[in-house]
Design goal:
The chain has 476 residues and is an alpha+beta fold. The protein has a 4-stranded antiparallel β-sheet with strand order 1-2-3-4, with no helix packed on it. The longest helix has 69 residues. The radius of gyration is 38 Å and the shape is elongated. The two termini are 58 Å apart.
Length: 476
């Protein structure tokens, strides 16, 4: 009767635990947010390698080199391998453990103890043992299955993290490359300007010697030449720093970073050409952005770990078994009578330590709340980046067109001003002012072209470009 009651009590305990476990399963989906409507589905193929729209073979080569050798990407790949090992570790709890136990002992008992040995028995004894020992905890509540799912979600999150790094590396390479193009184009403009300033200095010195102009005109021309020389030095310094930054992004060796070999074509006509990519908010932005998908999988992992922590409330059932041989003499270890085996089952229900389990559940729940906030922040940043990039992309071209027109009209004004000065209708100060304005306009036009190209880069990055978001990451 007692055995029947005990079995019934155990059955009721297991049934109640199963019911509680079922009622406390945590959903793994991210929270629903108030999102703006998408306007276009977008071309996933074009955004996957968006840098190719610039039609620059050197840029394509640099991006490919960075994606193959960049150290940040290498570190992200190492984190993927760490997460993959964690999945294997979590999976190991789903299977029985089997160990080979081999032991040998030599003991001596007291001859005058509380229970002395009978006459003729040796106080020394040996024990030799060889056995296979197995143990297995039955995953009744799905604790280890859930932990494995959580580890897989972490693995997927590290893959999305790598894709996030990849999009950033591709964008940084393109941004640095275009800055290099701009500085080289500015150096070309400054070189032409310097030649013009040197010609002006020579002309003014000749006119001073002839008594046509005073020392003021000569000093002003020499000052303008010195200003251009200072601008050249500053621009060269910036170009050197950009070359260093680019070689670091490409993952080159320290020797190559110290003596960078960076090649690029800085023809102004190419620099002023700015391609286009779809300038609308895609309807699948949350799928395109790897940082958002990373945050989604982190929510799934955090939710699953709440269930893992909650499973400790319920009893654990473990099975054990052993099979082998044991003998006091090594020569008789594998004889038939030396055979040993054992089977066992244990049920462990926590009673006193429930506060610790409760604390673990609360900690897992708090971590989930933190991850949810990170997800909301990632989505917010995605739409913020997209809007800013769309605004920059739509206005940068207008700025470039305006700067081009300004440079063109100032060049014409300088031609007319030079004619007026040589004809004696205007002072030399007017020519100097027009020269300064033209140099500034040429520089600003190059800056506008650089900014327009970087706006395309930022837009592609904001829209989740730089990776194939439709690829089956689970197969990697």
């Amino acid at each position: 009767m007692t055995d029947v009651l005990a079995r019934r009590a155990l059955g009721l305990l297991l049934a109640a635990s199963l019911a509680v476990a079922g009622c406390n399963t945590t959903p793994t989906t991210p929270p629903v947010l108030d999102l703006p409507p998408g306007t276009v589905a977008g071309d996933a193929t074009a955004l996957a390698r968006w840098w190719s729209v610039f039609g620059d073979a050197r840029l394509d080569g640099y991006v490919d080199e960075a994606l193959a050798h960049n150290l940040d990407l290498a570190a992200a790949l190492a984190r993927i391998e760490t997460a993959r090992a964690a999945v294997k570790l979590a999976q190991s709890d789903l299977y029985p453990s089997l160990n080979l136990a081999v032991g040998a002992a030599r003991n001596r008992s007291s001859e005058i103890g509380a229970n002395p040995l009978p006459q003729g028995f040796s106080p020394r004894s040996s024990d030799f043992r060889v056995a296979l020992e197995a143990s297995y905890e039955v995953d009744i509540w799905g604790k280890y299955r859930t932990a494995t799912r959580a580890a897989r979600a972490d693995l997927l999150a590290t893959r999305f993290a790598r894709e996030t790094v990849q999009t950033m590396v591709a964008a940084d390479v393109a941004r640095t490359y275009f800055q290099l193009l701009a500085t080289d184009a500015q150096l070309a403009v400054l070189a032409d300007t310097l030649k013009s300033r040197e010609d002006t200095v020579g002309l003014q010195r000749d006119r001073f010697q002839a008594g046509v102009v005073g020392e003021y005109e000569v000093a002003s021309a020499e000052a303008e030449r010195a200003s251009v020389l200072a601008d050249i030095a500053t621009t060269r310094r910036g170009a050197g720093q950009l070359e260093t930054a680019l070689t670091v992004l490409l993952g080159r060796t320290p020797r190559e970073v110290y003596t960078p070999d960076v090649r690029y074509d800085a023809a102004s006509a190419r620099l002023l050409e700015v391609p286009s990519i779809p300038a609308d908010l895609p309807s699948n932005l949350l799928e395109r952005r790897p940082d958002i998908r990373q945050a989604e999988t982190q929510i799934a992992a955090a939710n699953l770990r709440i269930d893992v922590a909650r499973a400790d409330y319920f009893p654990s059932v473990s099975l054990t078994g052993s099979l082998g041989h044991e003998s006091g003499a090594l020569a008789r270890l594998f004889n038939g009578p030396a055979l040993i085996f054992g089977l066992g089952a244990n049920l462990l229900q926590p009673l006193i330590g429930l506060k610790a389990v409760e604390a673990n559940v609360e900690a897992a729940t708090a971590r989930r709340a933190e991850v949810v906030v990170a997800y909301r922040q990632a989505v917010l940043n995605a739409f913020s980046d997209s809007r800013n990039a769309l605004v920059a992309s739509s206005t940068a071209r207008d700025a470039l067109a305006a700067q081009a027109l300004r440079r063109e009209r100032l060049a014409r004004a300088l031609e007319l001003g030079d004619i007026r000065y040589k004809a004696g209708y205007s002072p030399y100060l007017e020519v100097l002012d027009l020269q300064r304005q033209l140099l500034q306009a040429q520089t600003l036009e190059i800056d506008a072209a650089r900014d327009a190209r970087i706006a395309v880069v930022d837009l592609a990055k904001a829209l989740g470009g730089g990776w194939d978001f439709r690829a089956d990451l689970g197969a990697r």
